[in-house]
# Entry
Amino acid sequence: MEKQQSDLDRDRQYCELCGEMENLLKCGRCRSSFYCSKEHQKQDWKKHKLICKVADKSLISKQIPGHTPPSGEDGGPDKTSTENVPDQSNSPSSPPAPDTEAPAAGYRAGEVGSNGPATPNGQTSLSPQRLAVEIIVPCMNKHGICVVNDFLGEKTGLSVLENVKALYKKGKFTDGQLVSQKSDSPKDIRGDKITWIEGGEDGCEKIKFLMGRMDDLIRHCNGKLGNYTINGRTKAMVACYPGDGTGYVRHVDNPNGDGRCVTCIYYLNKGWNAKEHGGLLRIFPEGKSKFADIEPTFDRLLLFWSDRRNPHEVQPALATRYAITVWYFDADERARAKEKYLTGAGEKGVKVELEKPSDPS
# Structure
């Protein structure tokens, strides 16, 4: 029963009305449905009240090992006590107050991120192996998208940010380019400025450390992510949106089978507020009417399938927005792509073997 409930909770971590996956609120009555705002909960209440049931307190205590919550507690202050909620045969005409904030899609409360255990530096205390096997693999295989907060910890994350800002100050960034340059004005498509980093460059020691941590995760995931056999990656693309309202229109990272199977993005933006600063990454999972809005908040790691399953866009950023992206290759698809484009040149994403992260092939 506990495993079944855990699976159900992970499956429903999106707004029941619009599908948003960020900053969710839990229904204070059933504790199993989520909404992005009180307004959307009210709009969906006519439908939701037909299935909304009072939470079983004995089940709640099982979900949090070693913890027996007092009346109305579920890991945080409750705004609707279960004793005061009428049973299902007498559903209220208005929805109960929403409960505490729910975790973002792809991250389970109490195990990883800001709601879970952390070291003094702030990062998740899960080992790369546990993080990969227990969180990333099941989430990617089920949803195709996974979010991990507090990936490196504040101290290390700030050091990475210092490396990035120093590169930008030195003028190392250039306008982002398109794979196909058919457009007369690439800036109409994407407005970021980028630089490619192998990891061995002067002043990039912390970026190299981040790349190594990404590699560790992917090694532990290898053979378990879909049907992929991952044998390499690109250099790190360090990107900056200058905060002048630029973004990146809806696109697919790998629309033509170039070998990239997993997109891995690390965000570096302290105090980011999407309502004020914009810059959301909006993903439109293939075949679903719902979308996922990912805020580019500091020390957040995002993974998603790179192919046509995940079209996405960067909405206009009104403040300086930094991110580091690495793409991982599937061995078979990459070999086919190399054969097909054997005479091609100028590819920015030079393959790097996972065993030698700083040594391009």
Notes: Residues 160 and 207 are 6 Å apart (CA to CA). The domain at 128-177+188-344 is CATH 2.60.120.620 (Jelly Rolls).
